[in-house]
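Z., the sequence and structure:
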Amino acid sequence: MMRHGILLIDKPQGPTSHDVVEMARHALGVRQIGHMGTLDPLATGLLILGVGEGTKLAPFLSDLDKTYECTARLGARSTTYDAMGTIEMAGDARDVSLAQIAAAAERFRGTIEQKPPVFSAIKKAGRPLYDYARRGEAVETSPRRVRVYALDVLAWNPPDLSLRMHVSSGTYVRSIVHDLGEALGVGAYVNQLRRTQAGPFHVDDAVAIAGAEGFGSDIEKAWRTLAQALGHWTRVRIPDALVGAVKNGATVNAVGLESVGGALHHDHLYALVDARERLLAVARCLVSRGDMSVAGGGARRGDLVLKPVRGFNEE
């Protein structure tokens, strides 16, 4: 019987995220697998794979905050902002003090406007930016607003600077390191990068790839059911009498239903589970105007109702 959920992978350096998906398909004997948030080939660490019905969770898990640890090499620039590009010397990092680094890093905390690297998968006119870059075509990229919740200096051993960053989804650590090097006047690029956390998921709970054979023996610790994958959400328990209606996409009245993890609020998303804690649907909470068709009885004006936006079937 096929399992549905997510698998936490500790990706090694070298393979692309798509390569890891192919390894998982071979190891698990399942075709329906996809990743939730790309890691560059240089990068290691946490990669979340959706398996079976778990692939439907991508819209709800791809935008999680991320935490990274990286080593930035000061004194040089890279065309790709990392060690995989063409490197050119730019300055003498030995003259940079820890106080100067701390002062420069301050400007990259909080909400910032960030230009993505030209070697990235972001598309412009239907083509990824790296396609333009590889062909030597100049292309203007638009700044994106991102959030850097924390940027901590862990160690400074010239020319290598160790950093930890907690950032919003869509933030490019490579760009922060590049821009930090420019602010210091000596250049910088990412030499090593590791994703340690994505939302509530940590790389310590992930399973490593054991070569061509697939994954290590501790795969169970890295497995999460559909409901566990959304365990950081507020869950609403659906009584047996309404399970069939929810599976068919029907809106249900939230009045009298048990919510676990918090109260319900208009226009928020919630996980609907059955008595066995199986995920039935992701639903949006709406306010009834008194004229909505609701399973199991009517909804009065002002009642909160739950309208499924994505259904799941673990059977």
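The longest strand covers residues 144-157. Residues 5-64+200-229 form a domain with the Pseudouridine synthase fold (CATH 3.30.2350.10).

Let me know what you think.
H.
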